[in-house]
Amino acid sequence: MQSDISTQGVIFILSNSESELRNIRHVGVSAIAEINDFVNSLLELIDTVSNCSNEEDIKIHLFNSFLIQKFSLSQPIFDGIPSPRDGFSNGLPIFRTLSALIENNIIFEYKESQLFTLGFNYYVD
């Protein structure tokens, strides 16, 4: 398949083995690894969506997955973050989540967290 990527090319990538990906023009070893990572992520997303009963559950799962993957949260810290079930009807619980991440020194180091909290409290007062 010596051609540029099109819709048919994407279908080809999703349905064929790694060895056949080398036949696509301008695809090298590092690109094959990236393509495989992309395909695996896409398959995980499809699995997630197919296992959720409604759009709200999809949002909750993706929000929680992002927090766990991006910040490598331990379960106790994750449990301390407000549940999106409480806030998705009004949007993402961004400020409550940021607050929990700052309080647990996830976003900032301890000293930076203290300075941020003092500065923010000064502004709020």
Commentary on this structure:
This protein has helices at 7-15, 18-21, 29-51, 55-71, 75-80, 94-103, 110-124. It is mostly helical. The protein has two domains: 1-51, no CATH class; 54-125.
Q: What structural class do the secondary elements suggest?
A: mainly alpha
Treating each run of at least 4 consecutive H or I residues as one helix, how many helices? 7
Form type: elongated
Instruction: Write down the overall mean pLDDT.
Output: 76
Instruction: Give the proportion of residues in helices.
Output: 55-70%
What are the segments in which pLDDT stays under 50 over at least 5 consecutive residues?
Answer: none
- For the record, the count of structural domains works out to 2
The Cα radius of gyration reads 21 Å
**Sheet with the most strands, sense and barrel status:** none
Strand % is under 5%
Would you list the SSEs in sequence order as H and E? HHHHHHH
Overall strand count: 0
Distance between the termini: 65 Å
Provide a concise account of the structure shown.
The protein is mainly alpha-helical.
Please write out the topology.
Layout (H helix, E strand, L loop, with lengths): L6 H9 L2 H4 L7 H23 L3 H17 L3 H6 L13 H10 L6 H15 L1
Search tags:
67% helix; 0% strand; single chain; mainly alpha
